[in-house]
Amino acid sequence: MSHAAAAAALLLLAFISAHAEDPYLYFTWTVTYGIISPFGVPQQAIMINNQFPGPVINCTSNNNIVVNVFNQLDEPFLLSWNGIQQRKNSWQDGMPGTNCPIPPGQNFTYHWQPKDQIGSFYYYPSVGMQKAVGGYGPIRVHSRLLIPVPFDPPADEFDVLISDWYGIGHKALAGLLDSGRHLTRARGVLINGAGSAKPGDAPLFFLEAGKVYRFRACNVGLKASLNFRIQGHSLKLVEIDGSHTVQNVYDSLDIHAGQCYSVLVTADQPPRDYYLVASTRFQKTVQTATAIIRYSGSSVPATPDLPPAPTTWAWSLNQWRSFRWNLTASAARPNPQGSYHYGQINITRTIKLASSTSIVDGKLRFALNGVSHTDPTVPVKLAEYFGINGTVFKYNLITDEPPATGTPVTIAPNVITAEFRTFIEIILENPEQSVQSYHLNGYSFFPTGMGPGNWTPESRKTYNLLDAVSRHTIQVYPSSWTAIMLTFDNAGMWNLRSEIWDRRYLGQQLYISVLSPERSLRDEYNMPVNALRCGAITNLPLPPPYS
C-alpha cells in the first residue's frame, strides 16, 4: 500500500470512529402549572418551559435524545413518548409500569433514540389524568440524509395537535372517576392549545402560493375521535404513525385518539385565509374547532362555510380500508419496507382481548378479559428486574380468551407474558357502543382486519396480508373487532392500553413482559444508573448486570 493510500485509509478510520456514535440533542424542560383560557375561562394547565403545547423535539432517526425534566408541580410526574419504540430500552418509556415517577422538586434525565424510526409522534404525561390539562408536545423524526423519502422536501412543516378538552382540572377529573362516575362530553375541541379562531385572530400558519407543506396532525385528546380537514384544500396522505403510505388524496381524515397522520397540502387556491378544522365524530352534538391558515400577502378573510364532516362510522371504516403501506418506499433503514412479508409468517399464538364495563364495590371499572389493571407501588418492570415480582404482581391472571359473561372482575396489576421473538395475533374485541382506540408501546404492528360482530377464525379470510400500514395505535368500532399482528422482538415491559383516557385510568390496560432468555445486552440494556427508585426496591442491591 502506498503512503498516500495508507494515509487515506487512516483518515477514513478516523472519520468512522469520530462519527460512530449518532448525534446528541439536549433539552432542559421545566414542568410547571400555568393559566390558559381556551374558552374564555381561566384554567390551570401543565406547561413545559412555559409553553402549551410543549416544545417540539425535531430530530432524525437514531439521534440520541437527552431530556432533563425538572418537576415543579406539587405531585409526581412522568413523560412518555407516544410511538417511540425504545428498542431494548423500556427503561426510558416513562410509564407507571416501567419508571418510578419524578417527585415534586426533583429531576430526571431521559436518554433515548428513535432507532430505525421515522415519522410523527408526541410526548405526554402518563401519571393519572395529567394529560387532561396539557404537558404534551410534538415529536418529528426525519429520515437520515442518505435515505430516500417518497416525496420532495416540503416548503415547511407544521405540527397540529388536536384534542378534546374538558376544561376541568386533572385532579378534579381523577376524583370524579374515583368516585365511580365516568367522563361525559368534553367542553370543546382545541387546536394547538387554542379554541376556535375568531375573526381578526392571528393565523396559526402562513402559506406561500404554489408551495407544498407538510402537516403533522396528532390526536392527543382523552376520548373523542376527531375529523381533520382544511377548507378548500385536499390532503395527500404520506405517513401514518411512523410508516410511509400509498399517497391517496382525501378531503378529510378521521384521526382517533392517540394516532398521528402526515399530509401534504399544496397552496393552490386563491390567496386568502382558510380554516383548518377539527371536529368530533360519533357524538350526538358535534363540537368543532378552527384555526386560520393565511396565504402570505393576503388580507381576505376566510369564508364562514366550513367543509362538512362525514357522519357515520361505516365511512370511517371504509377510509381505514383505503390506507396502504408504501411498499416501494424506504423505511428508516436502506431497505424496502415491503421486504417484511408479515402475511407469510406462521402465527404462534392468538390472544383475544375483550373490554368490559363493570361495577366493582359500587364503583365503575373497565377491564380486559376480566382483570381491571391497577398500578402497584413499585413499577412492574422494576419489580421484575429486582426479582420481587412475586410479592408485587402475578403473571397471566388473564387467559388468551375472554371469560364468560358475568364473570366477576378482578382489580389487580394485569401483566401477561409473551415469548421473545414469537409472531402473535391479537384480537381486540369491542362489545361496547362507542369507538375505542388501543396503543401498544415498544412496537409497531400490522392491523390486518376489522369487522362487525365477534371475531372467528373465518375472519382471517378478510385480512390484508400484503400491505397493511405498520403502526402503533388502532381503532375498534362499536360492536366490532380489530386484528393486529406483530413479532415480539423488543425485550422489555410494554403497555397495551385504551387510548380512551377514563377507560385507561379505570383499568382498561395491561403490560406485556417480553424477556430474552439470554439476559444479554444484545437484547436489552441494563437499568440506567440514574433510574429513580421507589417502594420496595429503594434500598435493594442491584441484580447481576446483563452482559
From TrEMBL:
Family: Belongs to the multicopper oxidase family.
SUPFAM superfamilies: Cupredoxins
Signal keyword on record: yes
Statement: the UniProt record of this protein carries the keyword Signal: yes
Lineage top rank: taxon: Eukaryota
Signal peptide residues on this chain, from the entry's feature table: 1-20
Residues in Plastocyanin-like domain copies: 31-144, 160-298, 378-518
Coiled-coil segments on the chain, per record: none
PANTHER family: MULTI-COPPER OXIDASE (PTHR11709), OS01G0816700 PROTEIN (PTHR11709:SF27)
Name this protein carries in UniProt: L-ascorbate oxidase
Keywords of the record: Signal
Molecular function GO terms recorded: copper ion binding; oxidoreductase activity
Organism from which the protein derives: Dendrobium chrysotoxum (Orchid)
